[in-house]
Amino acid sequence: MVILGMKVSFLIYNSYSLKDKRSVIKSIIKKTHNKFNVSISEVGAHDTLNQGVLGIAVVSNNRKLCQQTLDLVLKEIEDNGEVEIHSIEREEL
User: Fold this and answer.
1) Is there a contact between 40 and 55 (Cβ–Cβ < 8 Å)?
2) Cα–Cα distance for residue pair 28/22, rounded to 1 Å
3) Integer angstrom CA distances of residue 16 from 26, 28, 84
4) Which of 19, 28, 50, 60 could make a disulfide contact with 15, Cβ separation 3.0–4.6 Å?
5) What pLDDT, on a 0 to 100 scale, did the predictor assign at position 80?
6) What are phi and psi for residue 76, nearest 5 degrees?
7) Is residue 18 a contact partner of residue 78, using CB atoms and an 8 Å limit?
8) Which domains, from first to last, does the chain contain?
9) Cross-referenced InterPro entries, in alphabetical order (predicted)?
10) Can you give the pLDDT at residue 28?
11) Phi, psi of 26 (to 5 degrees)
C-alpha cells in the first residue's frame, strides 16, 4: 500500500472577506474530489483572507499512479484562474 500526500499553499485573488475565500476553497475541494477521488481538506491559514492551504492524499497499491494523480490535481488547481500556488510539500507514508 502506498500513501502519498501534499500540502499546497496558495494566494487567492479577489478575496476580500472570509466568505469569498470559503467560496473559492470549497469550489476547489468539490471539483478536485469529484474529478480525482482524492482526500482533500483545508488544513491551514483559516483566518487569512487571501491565503489558503490544502492537504491532499491518495492511497493506491501503485506509487507511480499516486504520483500521477497528485500531479493532475496540482495542474487542476494551477489552472484555476483564482489562485496562485506559492509552495508545495510532498510526503510519502
Assistant:
1) yes
2) 10
3) 16, 18, 16
4) 50
5) 82
6) -60, -45
7) no
8) 2-92 (3.30.70.1120)
9) DUF503 (IPR007546), TT1725-like_sf (IPR036746)
10) 93
11) -65, -35
Q: Which residues of the chain register pLDDT less than 50?
A: none
Is residue 25 within 8 Å of 52, Cβ to Cβ? yes
The whole-angstrom separation of Cα 23 and Cα 82 is 11
3-state secondary structure of 66: helix
Partners of residue 7 on adjacent β-strands: 55, 89
Q: Which residue has the cell 510519502?
A: 92
Cell of 21: 475565500
What pTM did the predictor assign?
Answer: 0.87
Beta-strand runs (E) in the chain: 2-12, 39-44, 51-60, 83-92
pLDDT confidence of residue 63: 92
CB 4 within 8 A of CB 68: no
CB of 13 closer than 8 Å to CB of 83: yes
Q: Determine if residue 45 is left, alpha or beta; phi over 0 gives left, psi from -120 to 50 gives alpha, anything else beta.
A: left
